[in-house]
TrEMBL record:
L-tryptophan binds at residue 135. Homodimer. A motif ('HIGH' region) lies at residues 12-20. A motif ('KMSKS' region) lies at residues 200-204. One of its GO terms (biological process) is tryptophanyl-tRNA aminoacylation. GO terms for cellular component: cytoplasm. The gene is trpS. It comes from Candidatus Synechococcus spongiarum LMB bulk15M. This is Tryptophan--tRNA ligase. Belongs to the class-I aminoacyl-tRNA synthetase family. It is an enzyme of class 6 (ligase). SUPFAM superfamilies: Nucleotidylyl transferase.
């Protein structure tokens, strides 16, 4: 049996932060060694809500460069931009036509985002999960590493593959495309907001002090950590439900500094907040330094990134076209003769 295929993507909205790195991209870096990995920048998803075109273009390149700077190796993994491979939009249309509308109307993320957009809610926002299913099914992915909040979208992709494509359009005993499995990130990898330890660190939080962006300058990182919310108790501890901020910052120190929770608890159990924050600031700055340096090199040499994305597109396209053809045939669309 060949290696299992993994596919994932992040939207190029806002700037990638510590949560995206520790909760997602760091796992991808591990996965690329033992799997056939595809990582895309999902720019078509980013335009399902109002957006600024110049910013989207900049952040798409920035996100791709950050994948590489965090350790995704284009020799091992296929790195590409979703919209560069038109098969994503094409398969999305084909899947749209075999997906019941009521499967989409019950998506939690749609309801939340549609509530915010009101009468400006786009058709694309409703269709977001079908495009995501297309991203996954096109590559016959076996495993899809995603956060907990994407479970429902993954389930939809599985239902489209299993019940519709394979259930209604496959020849007896065959499948049209593979049914993917989610790979849910463990709870411990959740990074919480610096301003509220009960909320996830998020790109969409209007308060930039709530997150550490991977590209924040060292001075800014130190400042944000100094200003992070604390409580009135001295000594840093894990797992106290009354002290979510202590738990979150100590977890960061364990992950990026001493390497284990036991060592972090031992070292910081009696430490005051001031001393601890100084220490944590340096640890985070040190962890981000190599990423920022590599990012700087990549941005100074656009042709390298262009080359990676070109090669990624070519590899992705080969796989995607084959899947698209299978679906076209299964649905009865006539072959395109050369
Ligand atoms: P998003 O920033 O919501 O587009 O998420 C992109 C990826 O980063 C997903 O796989 C998320 O699960 C992961 N992610 C986002 N925020 C966090 C966080 N605060 N902690 C851990 N993982 C996160
Ligand atoms: N919806 C995902 C998120 O917000 C991003 C995404 C789009 C994705 N297409 C994907 C993730 C395909 C995994 C696989 O995190």
């Amino acid at each position: 049996m060949g290696r299992q295929r993994v596919l994932s993507g992040v939207q190029p909205t806002g700037s990638l932060h510590l949560g995206n790195w520790l909760g997602a991209i760091r796992n991808w870096v591990e996965l690329q060694h033992r799997h056939d990995a595809f990582f895309c920048v999902v720019d078509l998803h980013a335009i399902t809500v109002p957006h600024d075109p110049a910013l989207l273009a900049r952040q798409t390149r920035q996100t791709a460069a950050l994948y590489l700077a965090c350790g995704i190796d284009p020799q091992r993994a296929t790195v590409f931009v979703q919209s560069h491979v038109p098969a994503h939009s094409e398969l999305c249309w084909l899947l749209n036509c075999i997906t019941p509308l009521n499967w989409l109307e019950r998506m939690i993320q749609f309801k939340e985002k549609a509530h915010k957009q009101g009468s400006q809610t786009s058709v694309g926002l409703l269709d977001y999960p079908v495009l995501m299913a297309a991203d996954i099914l096109l590559y016959n992915a076996d495993l899809v590493p995603v956060g907990d909040d994407q479970k429902q979208h993954l389930e939809l992709a599985r239902n489209i593959a299993q019940q519709r494509l394979n259930g209604q359009f496959a020849a007896h005993g065959e499948t049209v495309l593979n049914v993917p499995e989610p790979l849910i990130v463990p709870e411990g990898a959740r990074v919480m907001s610096l301003t509220d330890g009960r909320k996830k660190m998020s790109k969409s939080d209007p308060n930039d002090n709530s997150r550490i962006n991977l590209l924040d300058a060292p001075e800014l990182v130190r400042k944000k950590i100094k200003r992070a919310r604390t409580d009135a108790v001295a000594g840093l501890t894990f797992d106290d439900p009354e002290r979510p901020e202590a738990d979150n910052l100590l977890a960061l120190y364990a992950l990026l500094g001493v390497g284990s929770r036991a060592a972090a608890a031992e070292e910081c159990g009696r430490m005051g907040w001031g001393q601890f924050k100084g220490l944590l600031g340096e640890v985070v700055v040190d962890a981000l330094r190599p990423i920022q340096q590599r990012y700087g090199e990549l941005m100074a040499d656009p042709s390298t990134l262009d080359g990676v994305l070109r090669q990624g597109r070519q590899r992705a396209e080969t796989v995607a076209q084959a899947s698209l053809e299978r679906v076209r045939t299964a649905l009865g669309l006539t072959p395109r003769r050369q």
